[in-house]
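Can you please make up a protein's amino acid sequence together with its fold in token form to help me picture the idea?
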Amino acid sequence: MTGTVEAIEGGFIQVTGRGLHDEVQVQFAERKGKTAKTVWYRGRHIAGGAGGTQLLSELLGQTDLFPFPKSVYAVQDCLQVAVGDKPDALIVDFFGGSGTTLHATALLNLSDEGSRRSIIITNNEVDDKRAKELNKKGHFRGDPTFERHGIFEAVMKPRCEATITGMRAPGQPLAGSYLGGRPLADGFKENCEFYRLEYLDPDEVDLGLQFEAVLPVLWIAAGGVGDREKPEEGQDYSMPAGSTYGVLFRESRFRLFKEALEGRPDVTHVWLATDSEEAYAEMRSALPAQLSVSMLYRDYLRNFRINAERNL
């Protein structure tokens, strides 16, 4: 048929050989991307089905902790459309909920041996009914007893841990399997870290006393590759082996820092700790143009002060 001939000529169908009766043998070429339909209707996409409520209950070992979680297969299919041709994509979800996006990213990586990463953001909100019950018992926001009932503590964190390790708790492998038969207990090769976002004392940040708290943000901004290094007191700069970031702590050691950078083509992000706009501009001009260079602390403090003023 004309359409088939055009597909062969266009490379969408590949001729692989001839049969016993000289018929053409073909196969569809792998497509890196495809246009999604406007409406999807697939059983595995149902929130209350095997990829949603049932799966979450198995991962957490408890029901009714999170109403109608998205099906992991629905999110996986969405990611397949969006980044199926980008095996090293970074996926950001600002409304993380139960952590389905991380789970779906791991499944998609498994399907094509990708190395996609995901950043999942959520608060630790406690539903109104539970919050009122806790308030009556004398537990309020900020109390450990109150906070452990929040979305992050009670749902997302344990779900992500169970998903990756294949265990609900040490020595307790998950039962059940994914659609297709893969056991939940197999887990994934991915790893995960959890961070708490909070305000820091601006004076301590300005003095460099809170670098350890700021460090994970810099590491993530540089791609989350390799190890982080907790600098020692008096250290001139930090540039961990295998990582993609470098931080200069002392302007007077810029020459040594620059020389170290010349031997590290894998470094992509640099932060220069200085209070001087002029010194920063001078150092930035001496570094390779392809590097992503930022001034450390000043912008961070400015943002802190803006937020503080809004809260007055």
Summary: The first strand starts at residue 13 and ends at 18. The two ends are 72 Å apart (CA to CA).
